[in-house]
Amino acid sequence: MADTPADLLAARLRRDAAAPLVTYYDDTTGERVELSGATLANWVAKTANLLQDEFDVTAGSTVALALPVHWQTAAALLAVWSCGATVLDTAAEDDGRLDGADVVLAAQDRLAPLEEQDLPELLGLSLHPLGLGMTGYSGPARDFALEVRAHGDVFSPWQQPDPGAPGLALGGLELTLGGLVDTARELAGRLELAAGDRVLVDERTAEEAGPVAWLLTPLAAGASIVLVHSPVAGTLPARAAAERVTATLGCTIEGIRELGRPA
């Protein structure tokens, strides 16, 4: 039977749950957050339980993520796929409307235009480095950080995710849950990404490439991820050295192989 993204995360936990899996930098704030496989899985489980228990998210549901590339976005993506549901890529919605979504998770600074769409369920994320709730907000969206705390650290889906079910909607295109994994594995092989690699990805590249490239491909290969938001010019070489980066995606650092670029 084909795998789903939830299986990729489970395999990573069996292999080495304690090792860093996602490290996130925001050079505008100086923020650094590092999540091991176990810590990311905890966030995934809590988020999946919230989506399933509070909003009945399961196979056939669609969840829109109006979120930037972020460690919490990684958890949200894997949580939706763990429920067996479809992620709606909001970048593909040119008119900004999310009429097909059952639930929308949005960064706090993206809530205002969404509040006018009469969406069935809207959750706001502060994206605070410690996972704290929103501040200075008085709109109708529920606060993700406050809601997710009440949910369990272990997730059991009502229905096991079906590899043949829709997993990612990009405009008129669609990838199944199994297709997401197949594409990630194929890309990992093509890029010669291997277990133990540590991949640095800047925000712009991650947004353009999409979650299969920046999240699922390293996960499928057994690699770990260093995400950098708003990188300050000239800082990446030192950061790559400090984080023991072995490969980059979308940026060039002398002495480190750039994925997708001929040697």
Automatic annotation (TrEMBL):
The lineage of its organism: Bacteria, Bacillati, Actinomycetota, Actinomycetes, Geodermatophilales. InterPro entries: ANL_N_sf, Rv3268. It comes from the Bacteria. This is TIGR03089 family protein. It comes from Geodermatophilus sabuli.
